[in-house]
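Schema walkthrough. Field components (list of strings):
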Amino acid sequence: MREILTEIKEKALSNIKEVMNLDELEQMRIKFLGKKGELTLVLRDMGKLSPEERPIVGQMANEIRNEIEIEISTIRDMFRNEIKKAKMEKEKIDITVSTNKKSLGHRHPLLSTIEELEDLFISMGFSVVNGPEIETVENNFNALNSPENHPSRDLSDTFYITEDILLRTQTSPVQIRAMKEMGAPLRIVSAGRTFRFDDVDDTHSPMFHQLEGLVVDENITMANLIHTIDIFIKELFGKDMETRFRPHHFPFTEPSGEVDVTCFKCMGKGCDACNGTGWSMELLGCGMVHPKVLENCGIDPEKYSGFAFGMGIDRITMVKYGINDIRLLFENDNRFLKQF
Amino acid sequence: MLLPIKWLKDYVDLNEEPKVLADGLTLSGSHVESIISLNKGIEKVIVGKILKIEKHPDADKLLICNVDIGEKQLQIVTGATNLKINDYIPVAIVGAKLPNDISIDKTNFRGVDSYGMLCSLKELGYSDSVIPKEMRDGIFILDKEYPLGTDIAQVLQLNDEVIEFEITPNRPDCLSVIGMARETAATFNKELKEPEIKIEKEVEDISNYIDSVEVKSSLCNRYYTRVVKDVEIKESPLWLQIRLMEAGVRPINNIVDITNFVMLEYGEPLHAFDLDKINGRKVIIREADNEEKIITIDEIKRNLDSSNLIIADEKSPIAIAGVMGGFDTEVTRETKIVLLEGANFNGKSVRLTSKKFGLRTEASTRFEKGIDPNLCKTAVDRVCQLIELIDAGTIVKGNIDVYKDVKEEKEIVLRPNKVNSLLGIELSIEDMIKYLEGLGLKSKLKDEVINVTIPTFRLDLEREVDLIEEIGRLYGFHNIPSKPLVGVLTRGEKPYGRIIEDKAKFILQGLGLNEVMTYSFISPKVYDKIKVSDNSPLKKYIKLINPLGEDYSVMRTTLIPNMLDLLSRNYNRGVEICHVYEIGNIFVPKELPVKELPEEKKILSLGMYGKVDFYDLKEVVDKVFERLGIKDVEYIREEDNPTFHPGRTARLVIGDDVIGIIGEIHMDVTENYDIKERVYIGQLDFNKIVDLTNLNFKYKPLPKYPSMLRDIAVVIEKDILAGEMEKVIWNNGKGLIENIELFDIYTGDQIPEGMKSVAYSITYRSHERTLKDEEVNEIQQSIIKDLEDKFKAKLRS
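Field assembly_structure (string):
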């Protein structure tokens, strides 16, 4: 009987090796291991064996069954893998095709610049506040220490609604509102629309945007202002950007300064765009809040000091994205908007 | 302000490179806009002398000159007409280079060889606006004999740069060479050498020529005059002309040139009258009468009014004060005796007058900003000194000086600790005093404070903080070490409304809409374009007093016109699909005419055309509301809004609150905007959206029990709104309906005219148990019955 079992084993293993597909393999399984398979049939005769031989042959038969089963399953896996492979081979597609079925909207480059800047200042402890586009002469000029005869107040510079009401020419009136409403200490930033009597051309627009920051607290110094501006410019334009503080004049700050940054075009080497100076001019204006302005808002300049800064966002956006005509920002051509 | 460096060197010893000079001055507060090298690149241009002039045989307009350049004679063809024998002129010889990359070669003009070019001032790099009128079209004729062959750069002192400054309005004293010299001296720690004013010879007395000066207006604080006789009017010497041209001023004649020179030098505008042409022996400063007229030296007749300050003789106006002199009393070739004026006029008055006449002159820009009245005398006396120096006339003794409000030096107390605490530095008192003294501010330490004497030319220094700025800028803002902010405020916040706005924008972006931005002011004509009725509240808009034009003249009360405008622009530029939004303000006046600030309301404006219908727009709105947690929005048919399609427009209502309107734009309106496609626009009150937003999303357990899906299809009258039917379905649901989905609306075959088939798929689920068929069937039956009762619906089988 042992010989018969060994014979079946060898026959089964060699037959299995020759099958061509899963069906044939199944037939082999039935042929040897099925209910009426060769191995099964042999085992039926186990009864004829002596009680001593039975467990030995039984164990041998089980081992042979296992061996055949393992072989079948190995071959089965091989066939299945081949089938999957062939299927996937057939399913090959052109992976360079774009169908453009999904669409995601685009943020306006200027408004997203404002948002980025606001978020940056929020991380520096500034709170965002907003003010109205239509303002009083009091908030826009008087309280900001603007001289009564200053040309910026003329009808040829500022849009008026009445003698006392105008379209704000700067975001600075928000400073006045904030100081009057919240008092000191204060750390705010405010961005928004501003208006000046400028005809439309590639660098001018009667409506433009500013962002303004203000800090009022005890012991605020110009050194703090310089630090704040420095961080902001490096965040916005990158670590390689150098800044240059130079004195300037604004009625609402004293001392006042303007900040130049490395020329964007030549990175400081000097080129036509920067008149050979290596500096891009007048990125922002800043200074220590004028004591008169603090007084106008009911804040004691002997106890508190502060700094303020303001910048034109339209220009910053244009520099950042390489936009050469401010009109593009307001035309809203879809093909323009989709680039950002 | 143009500052020739060589002029600056008259008052400060300098050997710094122009770039170093410019950087230093920029960092101490005088912002350099550019460094101009007027005559850059001139090579091989030398002095020559005309020996012979002949006509070109074959060209009427050309001349052949023989020019002596010392070592040899050259034949040069020219088209100029102002030459004569023995003139000394600049000659660009073969191989010469001129500004703007021009180089000179041997040429041939109609058969005659030409070995070089005779140069005009323009060819030497001067701008048309400063070249003397008589030299504008011709060769530059030198004022006297120079050694032949001398480099012209040497003769004209060309090797020098001009710095252009942006002078801030608080520093009118810097609109002068001496003012800038003072800044330069302070910046580079050098000494300022002001001219010593001295007149060698004075004759007769001013009273022989003029009786009095009467100042009849408070707009003139000082009027100082002197008289110069025996003047001989001619061109100025070359050095004077070159100075003026480099500083951007056109030479006219010796007397006028000197007054301009001194104006540039001291910043005090001056004027010279031809005294013989003044009627009577009085000079009167007064406001003009309405109806009065004057012809100014630009030969334009100007109508004066009582807001204009004028200088007059006993008969008529002879100058517009601080703006421009009169033509009749102008200094001309025939002038023999001049009256010099150094005056101090009110800045505002000069500004308004110069504006009225559209005349911004070197004088008016200086008066506008304010001038030290003490300069009147200094400047006029300096003119006399220079007239004497170039031998242009004889100075008459004495002056007439009407000076009302005498400007005197004042004192400001400066606390050194305040300087350091505001700038954030640690500067010694000695250094502070050094900086102040460098600027000509006498400073004395007494009782731990510095008493600073403010000279009268520093009109801008009013209080302590102004002096802190002076110290700060000379110390250098760039030298102040940067120090981080400290304090109690370390956490920044964004207002809630802005957070919601950002969120809404994020959702809209996800829905594929692009963000746009339009002007706050619009044309009043657009209200007709969108067919707004005359009594609509939208027409209660705020007007600007001084708009840029009608297109930008009223503050918008709706964002629809801006939206249509930009959609139209895109459409007409061939953009096929345009889906956009804007969040912007409208301006609602509390009353008209406006007395107080209007309400500024934020509107979410949506606009779409191209591959969209009403339902796409509605879905955008629904998604925004869903993600902002806004519930129970009802869409109510809006049939009588003239801007919109009567059958495709909805008013959005939550409770009693109208949130906005969405719909298809009326065909008349799209025609007005040249759009040949259906356009969908929504206008939502964003402030209300912010109020209604509820981001307090709470987790609900995921369903444990299975759902059941049932369909209902009914035939119903066409005008019944889906929203109405859905209300009925929900109401019958006994709280077991999880979702209703409209999956088909059908009209046509098999459906009677005026009816439609509507099919819903309803999801039932309980959170407590598995639903039984019977209870769901019961609900289905009650829904069908209710639909039948309310809308005469018929179940479709």
